[in-house]
């Protein structure tokens, strides 16, 4: 979907990075992360900044870019990126139908805005439906070509480095 609307692969990577969560980045680190030339990343960063989708600011001697949360399309782009990644549907189904889910986190690469092909989740709850979880994992892979790795806990383990929190059950 997103790749049919946006033809630049570098721009797609930047949108995924900045709009999957409130990430920030600077030119050289983004070029290295995406395995792209600094010039191609710079061109796309400039285009997205000129369009008002990104903001930039100085941190020391480094120019750091972030998604512009004040942009009128910020929420819509965030929702499109989430749908593209398949996270919204996955998390909604997990929280709604898995049983007593108290908290659900996306951790790892996706929480950092990196599309690595594996979605890593932490579920905290009691009496979770493990058969349904296996079904969701296979369906998610079938639809999005992304693996799902799940860590289950009956109580909050503390700092799980969970960046994206998706809700709580009853």
UniProtKB/TrEMBL annotation:
Q: Name one GO biological process term.
A: regulation of DNA-templated transcription
Q: Which SUPFAM superfamilies match?
A: Winged helix' DNA-binding domain
InterPro entries recorded: ArsR-like_HTH (IPR011991), WH-like_DNA-bd_sf (IPR036388), WH_DNA-bd_sf (IPR036390)
Database matches in CDD domains: HTH_ARSR (cd00090)
Q: What is this protein called?
A: PaaX-like protein
Q: Which organism is it from?
A: Mongoliibacter ruber
């Amino acid at each position: 979907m997103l790749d049919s609307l946006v033809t630049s692969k570098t721009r797609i990577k930047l949108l995924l990075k900045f709009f999957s969560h409130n990430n920030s980045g600077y030119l050289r680190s983004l070029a290295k992360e995406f395995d792209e030339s600094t010039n191609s990343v710079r061109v796309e960063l400039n285009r997205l900044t000129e369009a008002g989708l990104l903001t930039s600011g100085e941190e020391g001697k480094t120019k750091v870019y972030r998604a512009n949360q004040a942009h009128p399309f910020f929420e819509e782009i965030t929702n499109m990126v989430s749908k593209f990644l398949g996270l919204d549907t996955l998390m909604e189904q997990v929280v709604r139908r898995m049983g007593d889910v108290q908290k659900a986190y996306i951790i790892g690469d996706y929480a950092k805005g990196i599309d690595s092909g594996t979605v890593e989740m932490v579920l905290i709850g009691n009496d979770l439906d493990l058969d349904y979880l296996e079904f969701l994992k296979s369906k998610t892979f079938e639809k999005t070509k992304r693996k799902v790795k799940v860590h289950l806990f009956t109580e909050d383990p503390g700092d799980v480095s969970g960046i994206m929190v998706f809700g709580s059950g009853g």
